[in-house]
Amino acid sequence: MKLKNYFKILILSLITIIYSCENDNDAIELSSENRILSFELSKNSYSKAFNISENSVDGTVDSNIELTGINLNIAISEKASITPSPSSITAITGPFTFTVIAENGDERIYNVSINRELSAENSILDFRINDNNFSTFATINNDNNTITQRLPQTVSLSNLDVSITFSERATITPSIDNLIDFSEPVSLTVTSESGIERTYIVNIAHMDEIFSKTCSEMNAWKWFGGDNRTTAPDIDPYDRNMGTGQTIILDNDLNPSNFSIHLREGFRFDEDDSPYNQDVELKLNIRNSEGNIIADTTTTVFGNFNGGFITFDLANKNLFLESNTVYIFQWYLVNGATLGITAGSSGNTDEESTGFCFNGGYNGQSNLRDNTNLEDINVWGQHPWNFNIVLEGNE
Q1: Quick check: 103 and 28 in contact, CB under 8 A?
Q2: Per-residue CA distances from 257 to 156, 302, 314 (Å)
Q3: Where are the alpha helices (DSSP H) in the chain?
Q4: Whole-angstrom Cα distance, residue 60 to residue 98?
């Protein structure tokens, strides 16, 4: 009986050994793959895939892409893992490594070196000239590397306040802090981050060419000044004051010296057509395209004035009017409503012509009863006529 049990145990042991050997032969081998298959960097709308060698990833991004706030999208071998996690890399400040670990534990280290390309930009973008009375941008010609500007005679070229904007990451010599004398041409060299140089020649000179434009063709006359009529419909006597204006657009920068307007006759009371025969004061406001007053002045019209051009002296205003820019000149009789006197503001009704004399007129009306005055831009509006003026100065 004991022998029989012994044989049973022996047979069971043999069967167990055979079964275990068969299971060992059928066991799944763990993967040894531990490679980076693709490597892509993205930032906002920019993305770039990098070449992968046996144990490294390297390359460059565009010069305008800072290596901060980035995302890495990395594909690796199936069943492998990677450390550190690509999602943890949001900035690259130098070389670093990734370790890819195969399913069976084998490791492969990748050295990663990604840099930003050095910028080749070496341009002067803005050259601003600052003065007590104005600020303007000089003309930059990047085809022949010149910077030019003409300035009023009152501006000292040997002690000029300038500010320059140039390409990001570039350098400029000599240092702008040392550039104060532009009485002679000045050379500025801009060197890109990658070492490429560009030299600009800066020529700044005084305005010394005489400018004079006259708009004298007239075929209409608009009410200008106050109104003393007692019989005019919907108008109270000694209540309204009417002014005139004209848009000025120049082909070249200008330092104006005089501005003149034309009245058909001397001031009079319209009720009985009697002359006023006393001195009056006219006010001129010069506004920018937003309606803000940039300069103003007054002039006296003597009592014996019988019509013609009346001049406003602008020489001491040191104005700098820029080319291709809208300026609005508006003039009116000071205390016109109270005085109740009027004259005819000469104009031209031609709506087809173009050029300096035809950039558009203005008309303004204030009323004492409404507590308005002609200093307020809101009482002015465009007028279909162009008014007779003379503008003089240096360009």
Answers
A1: no
A2: 18, 21, 5
A3: 2-26, 336-339
A4: 18
Task: Determine the Cα–Cα distance for residues 394 and 150; give it in Å rounded to an integer.
Answer: 10
Instruction: Indicate the residue type of 243.
Output: G
Along the 395 residues of the chain, how does pLDDT read in single tens digits? 455 555 565 565 555 555 554 455 456 899 999 999 999 999 999 999 999 999 999 999 999 999 999 999 999 999 999 999 999 999 999 999 999 999 999 999 999 999 999 999 999 999 999 998 889 999 999 999 999 999 999 999 998 999 999 999 999 999 888 777 999 999 999 999 999 999 999 999 999 999 999 999 999 999 999 999 999 988 999 999 999 999 999 999 999 999 999 999 999 999 999 999 999 999 999 999 999 999 999 999 999 999 999 999 999 999 999 999 999 999 999 999 999 999 999 999 999 999 999 999 999 999 999 999 999 999 999 999 999 999 999 99
- Please give the DSSP secondary-structure letter assigned to residue 155: S
**Under the phi-then-psi rule, with left for phi > 0, alpha for psi from -120 to 50, and beta for the rest, what region is 145?**
left
Closest CA to 37 of 94, 88, 70, 86: 86
Using the Cα atoms of residue 182, residue 184, residue 189 and residue 190 in order, give the sign of their dihedral. Answer: positive
Can you tell me whether residue 373 is helix, strand or coil? coil
Among 300, 278, 289, smallest CA distance to 362 is for 289
What is the value of pTM for the model shown?
Answer: 0.77
Task: Say if residue 191 is exposed, middle or buried (CB neighbours under 10 Å; 0-12, 13-18, 19+).
Answer: middle
* CA separation for the pair 329, 324 (Å, rounded): 15
Distance of CA 206 to the CA centre of its chain: 26
| 32 contact partners, CB below 8 Å, separation of at least 6 | 102, 103, 104, 106
Integer Cα distance of 304 and 275 in angstroms = 10
